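Dear colleagues,

For the upcoming journal club I promised to circulate an example of a predicted protein-ligand complex. I picked one with adenosine-5'-diphosphate because it came up in last month's discussion. The inputs are reproduced below in full, followed by the predicted structure.
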Amino acid sequence: MNPSEHGRLPMNGGPQDQQLIAIEKLQYMLDYSKSSTIATVLAPLLCIPLYLDVTEPLRFGAWFAAMTVAVITRYVLLRSIRTLSNPPQNANVLNIAIGLVTLTWGMGWFVFVQPADMVSYLLYQIISLTVLFVGMVGYCINWKTFFAFVVPLKAPELIFIALNFSQIVWPIAMGSMVAFYLALKMAFLFSSSWEKSFALRMKNDALIDQLTEEKNASLAANVAKSEFIATASHDLRQPMQSINIFIEMIDAAQLNENYSAIFNRMRKSVTVLNRMFNTLLDISKLDSSFVVREREFNLIEIVHSLEDSFSDLCTEKNIKLSFKGSAHQIRGDLHLLEQILRNLLANAIQYTDRGRIEVAFGATSDSLSFSVEDTGCGIPEVDLPLIFNEFYRSDHSRSQCDGLGLGLAIVHRIVKKINGQCKVQSEIGKGSVFTVHTHFPVIPAQSIGQLPSRLEPNTAATASSTPTREQRASASSRHLGILENDEALLQAYRQYFTQAGYCVHLLPYEQEAFHECLALLPKLNFILSDFRLGKKDGLYFIQQLREEFNHDIPACIVTADTSPQHLELFSQHNIDVMYKPIDIQSVEKFISTHI
Ligand code: ADP
């Protein structure tokens, strides 16, 4: 195991660092000794062809046996070393193990070398120097080990020279001393560079840890921020939903001129509030681990939905809204594409006072791309790099229009998630073009211009806002079960849907009362439920009702809870979901298409 894995510390020379260095050194030397075991076996074997014939057999045999014992002992001792437990004691074991072998090797001077015989001297010297250089690389990082290796190797040679002073071959002896000096110098250099690189590695590791910690902290802060947005908007959405419904229920025609003007202003403010809530909701949903759900659809679906939502607004502002391109069949995430387009289009309308807005669809290398072009106020060049940041609003828009500065941040996040690209070109006073390239594949089809418009403007709204006589007449076949714990909202639902011709059943959400009420209920045609309802949630009650009627009754949860796990859960149980605040007409339209 790498000792540095035990905890990375910035090197400051403290006792913990010393301990860490000691462990790292021991590990390095141990690995090196183990890998050089083969050399300790080969060196004595090399002596057999070199010296067997010229050495007295008894002396040779005794030395060879001693060497064999030393090599085996070294091997056993090395195996016994556990780097992480008590490094100083283990370092001593290592020193003994390697010192034993070099001492036996040093004794070879007295066995094999004839002082006056240049050949035997030279051969033993060459092997000894090789052993010295090899050991130096492995053991110089710890001076005790280095000396435990060098002293037993070199001391016998020096004693040998001293004893045979008059007969020694001096050029060889001198050469050996120079090589020894060089080995010491190299050992010193190697040792200091090893320590430097180790300290650097520790510093790097500590920096990586610090960076990871900071990254985790910023991720946690981001999650906390999203949770805050989700929770805050959840609690505010509930009353907003009631306000929406009550506003829808006021008959503006019955108000006098003064109140009518106030009412219209109030309605506009509520619309802005709704938009802000939904933007907050969108961004908090994108913060959670949202997934891209691909399916096949036709672009015309998006076009119709955008027309439904924005054409009235454009007519009001006298702006010409047009769609260009072919009705491509796409494989991609319809919901995310629509979200991008809705944000771009809402901005285009908001920042354009006259002229036109054009949404154009095309295909780049068989992938869908589209643009939203307006003839609005344009964006100052200094703002262009910043407009995709969260909560960024340029100065001119801050004073003129309502907004949170999140629309383009949402676009940016989605585009990133689908691996697309978003570009903007803009000229002050002339307008802006936002272009998005996706990787969603397209299959060309007929032109959008050729397709009949699905709805005449306002048809849907008129149909759903005032219930017709026919709708009322068929009320008996439209039993609507409602579960909601906000009393004001519940009454608003009851009033609105009764007026719209439904037979409304307000269901209790205390378990006992609910089960008593089950027996009295007619077969429901639709269930509208809040999610958080006392001890049990909307999902539980919907399941109970479906079981009771042995039928998969269409159901929709209208909730302010935006967590992706719940969304997944609803879709698993075939339950639709709508997020508060939502205007009551949309809920009614949804219910009537599902019954
Ligand atoms: P918001 O519209 O709520 O201010 P956005 O994130 O949607 O926030 O846009 C950020 C800023 O980019 C806006 O404040 C506005 O200044 C600028 N902007 C975006 N779209 C347009 C556009 N089509 N025309 C002019 N300015 C725009």
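Two points we might discuss: Residues 347-348, 351, 374, 376-379, 387, 392-394, 397, 403-409, 432 surround adenosine-5'-diphosphate (CB under 6 Å). The chain has three domains: 3-212, 291-455, 466-594.

See you all on Thursday,
B. R.
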